[in-house]
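Sequence only, no structure available. Ideas?
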Amino acid sequence: MENALVLIVEDEPEISDILERYFAREGYRVLAAGDGEIGLAHHQRLRPDIVVLDVNLPKLDGNSVLATIRQRGDTPVIMVTALADDLDKLHGLRAGADDYVVKPFNPAEVVARARAILRRTNAASAPNKVLRIGRLSIDPVAFVATVEQGETRVALPLTRTEFRILEFMGGYPNRAFERGEIVDACLPEGDALDRTVDSHMSKLRKKLDAAGVGGLLNGVRGVGYRLGEPG
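Reply:
I predicted one. Tokens follow.
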């Protein structure tokens, strides 16, 4: 995923340059276009994994570019605009954008959002397989997590958000996740705060504890959380 090709369609060189640097620093391949027509040509020829698309572009505006991209397929698109109007945002999302950011923005946040979208896209296109961490099993198809207890398996009474968190972290066992990564991947519909993540984690840990596998979910000082068997 870190080798994914990102197409940035942005007519302001300063913004394009800083986005290129941030994406490249995280290991992504990056291509830039300064107007809508060039952006569409790059998209058709190179098939990027995700597009960061400005709304106000010369020659062909971002909404028109998005419409053409959607006619061609389902390439993920993050729209960028200087307008904070909710109606403008709603129009972009209804037209098929996967996410939306308003200038001025934190480029690190744009990279984090792109990473989360790519993870969801890759997970949706990959064969759904049961994730196993110790005695814990996570079945994305059945939408159930179970814990082995002797010769039987006990289902955990998880909320939808708790399951999404467990499934997301279970795909990368023993990796430390920042709270922001968990928000982007598992709570995309709201502006969740760090304490919201902490609350979900606390409830999830209690349920794992009650099933006898509480040691799988742990806080990582100064970072966030890790799901995996103790080393």
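The CA atoms of residues 41 and 162 lie 42 Å apart.
Hope that gets you unstuck.
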